[in-house]
Amino acid sequence: MSIEVRNLEAGYALKPILRDVSMRIEEGKICALLGRNGSGKTTLLRCLNALITPTQGQVYLRGQDIARLSRVEIARMVSVVPQSTSAPFNYPCLEVVLMGEAARLNLWSAPGEAARQRAKGVFKQIGIEHLLDHDYNGISGGEQQLVLLARALFQDTPYMLLDEPNSHLDFSNQHHMMSLMRQLAKQHGITMLITLHDPNLAVYYCDEIVLMQQGRLVCQGPTLEVLTDFNLCAIYGNNIQTDHTSRGMQVVVPKAIVMGAVEQTLVC
């Protein structure tokens, strides 16, 4: 159940974004997409969900070219947690999550009681039971992202695409979401591709890294093999490097912080 991308090129109107991108993510892996703003991360996710038609190349899910699949078939295989979204009508959060059942329902059908109970179980699993009856448009951006995560889990697909799922979350909920993602991926074999801005979240929670720059894939591989000083400087500039905490964990920090710590040690 791998995700495979072959020689992908895509963009918007006359503006090319992705250039000759090829990669493969194996079953059950959590892979982080890292790169500066405008590097093509979101565009790549849209291609993987067939929201954008590539000008060249193919995307394969479970060995099937998604260009040959219907929208319903794709929705049964891929769930998405977008950066943010607003509901056109002020639905209760439970109803927003139940929308994840749409690809499995017949026309004019509605989720039954079993589906509603399963959806409530997802709310409990994420720890947001208190939002069940709240209006989706009336809760905070961070709470909306947790509800969208609940919808993706309820959709029950082998692949999950998450576009900056932590952008509206506080520090505690960022780690709560990433920890939950890792747990679910390992328990259920879900293959996840997540765009992130913070390399440290990738260090702690992701199996693999894909580094992107100006629409090209620069490097892919196991997290600690990819997040080297050389690669980080190539992507983010010369003011970034890795350091190690007292517990031996690798972290990514501005060089000034590392140098400041060294200078302080020398003075003492």
From TrEMBL:
Signal peptide: none annotated. One of its GO terms (molecular function) is ATP binding. SMART domains: AAA. Residues 3-239 form the ABC transporter domain. Pfam families: ABC_tran. The keyword Nucleotide-binding applies. This is Iron complex transport system ATP-binding protein. The lineage of its organism: Bacteria, Bacillati, Bacillota, Clostridia, Eubacteriales.
